[in-house]
Amino acid sequence: MNAPALNIDSVRDALRNVIDPEIQYNILDMGLIYEVNVLEDKTVGIQMTLTSPACPFGPMIIHDVREACLSVGAEDVQIDLVWQPPWSPERMNDEAKLDLGFDL
């Protein structure tokens, strides 16, 4: 079976498998991923944040993001952890807000 093509959609799909252990929801639908880029040399660039700078699961989540990108064919993964704009529940998609009990 062939591996999925490395592109923004395959990376985003893989990132849906990365779960924030504190909230028990995937980081993509939570709005923690700000940007995904795929370069011709199979480098994936991710701009992301965490729910807070003191997130105790930060290193684990970043490791899981890297592994998710590698699983769809990335040869290198560059993760830019940013704090602006800060994450808030408003960044979640509507399905995540409903699942987690936030008002729309």
Describe this structure in words.
With 104 residues, this protein is an alpha+beta fold. It has three helices and five strands, in the order αββββαβα. The chain has helices at 8-15, 58-71, 94-99; strands spanning 19-20, 25-26, 33-38, 43-48, 76-81. It is globular.
Structural class: alpha+beta
Multimer state: single chain
Percentage beta strand: 15-25%
The total count of strands amounts to 5
Low-confidence stretches: none
Instruction: Please give the radius of gyration in angstroms.
Output: 14 Å
Give a summary of the structure in a few sentences.
The chain has 104 residues and is α+β, with helices and mostly antiparallel strands. It is 27% helix and 21% strand.
Give the topology, please.
Layout: H1 8-15, E1 19-20, E2 25-26, E3 33-38, E4 43-48, H2 58-71, E5 76-81, H3 94-99
Parallel strand pairs: 4-5
Antiparallel strand pairs: 1-2, 3-4
List keywords for this structure.
21% strand, globular, 104 residues, 3-stranded mixed sheet, alpha+beta
